[in-house]
């Protein structure tokens, strides 16, 4: 019995790449892919499926969680894909996961390289995103500005709101943890906020971002004011010149009338 337990522990040893031996060429154990369905973000009580896909037929798959010594789940499946069903997930089940696989022809204790880490988040509400203006929050009338709404997770849906407008101004799905919303400079000034949510039901929403104020560049107004001052100055010079001519003509006529008297 003790020998059987030792063999099982060696088979499920969690350090996926620590026990690789020279008898198995590296090309035979490339890393698998790990994903979550319907999403890596779930509300408490929802069902989540972790899917580990190997680049070649495997015999055993294992799911490892960060901080755990042994695999939290494993399955014996003679194919490239293994599914692990998590029913009624709790916040305690959230965390960082990766998966490995092994082939019956490999030495005892040899696992593939681990997959990329999958962050599973179990929550009723996502943290608020940040909202920034690129290249900056002051926009010239003939320039454009892009508002970037950035969260923590990839594959989310993002919505941009403007104060005074009830419906979303723009809506985007993104494979990155952020989404960019381009705005023409002439109509950009205003106050904006954004949020993000999971792309499929059941939806998990984030809090709104802090408001961002976009203002117009005052250089155009300054140029216009300076132009008005120049025009007013020229008009003043014209009026002064006309006044001078009128006075000169009046004095000339007065002098002419004085010289005509007997």
UniProtKB/TrEMBL annotation:
Spell out the InterPro entries in the cross-references.
Ig-like_dom, Ig-like_dom_sf, Ig-like_fold, Ig-like_Receptors_ImmuneReg
One GO cellular component from the entry?
plasma membrane
Which interval of the chain is the signal sequence?
1-18
Give the transmembrane ranges: 229-248
Query: Would the keyword Nucleotide-binding turn up in this protein's UniProt record?
Result: no
Q: Name one Pfam family in it.
A: Ig_2
Domain Ig-like positions: 26-123
Keywords linked to the UniProt accession: Disulfide bond, Glycoprotein, Immunoglobulin domain, Membrane, Repeat, Signal, Transmembrane, Transmembrane helix
Could you give a single Gene Ontology term from the biological process aspect? immune response-regulating signaling pathway
Q: Which GO terms fall under molecular function for this chain's record?
A: collagen receptor activity
Q: Does the keyword Signal apply?
A: yes
Q: Give the protein's recorded name.
A: Osteoclast-associated immunoglobulin-like receptor isoform X1
Q: Which organism is it from?
A: Callorhinus ursinus (Northern fur seal)
């Amino acid at each position: 019995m003790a020998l059987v337990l030792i063999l099982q522990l060696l088979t499920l040893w969690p350090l996926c790449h620590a026990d690789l031996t020279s008898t198995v060429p590296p090309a035979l154990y490339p890393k698998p892919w790990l994903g979550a369905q319907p999403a890596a973000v779930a509300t408490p009580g929802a069902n989540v499926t972790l899917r580990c896909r190997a680049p070649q037929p495997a015999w055993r798959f294992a799911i490892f969680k960060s901080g755990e010594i042994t695999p939290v789940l494993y399955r014996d499946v003679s194919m490239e894909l293994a599914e692990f069903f998590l029913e009624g997930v709790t916040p305690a089940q959230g965390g960082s996961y990766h998966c490995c696989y092994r082939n019956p022809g490999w030495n005892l204790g040899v696992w593939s390289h681990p997959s990329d880490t999958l962050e599973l988040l179990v929550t009723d509400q996502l943290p608020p995103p940040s909202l920034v203006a690129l290249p900056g929050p002051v926009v010239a009338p003939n320039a454009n500005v892009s508002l970037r709404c950035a969260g923590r997770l990839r594959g989310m849906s993002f919505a941009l709101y403007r104060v005074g407008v009830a419906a979303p101004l723009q809506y985007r799905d993104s494979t990155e943890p952020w989404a960019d919303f381009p705005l023409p400079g002439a109509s950009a000034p205003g106050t904006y906020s954004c949020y993000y949510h999971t792309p499929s039901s059941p939806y998990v929403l984030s809090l709104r971002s802090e408001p961002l104020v976009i203002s117009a560049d005052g250089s155009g107004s300054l140029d216009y004011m300076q132009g008005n001052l120049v025009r007013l100055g020229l008009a003043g010079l014209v009026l002064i010149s006309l006044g001078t001519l009128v006075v000169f003509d009046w004095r000339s006529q007065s002098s002419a009338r004085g010289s005509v008297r007997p």
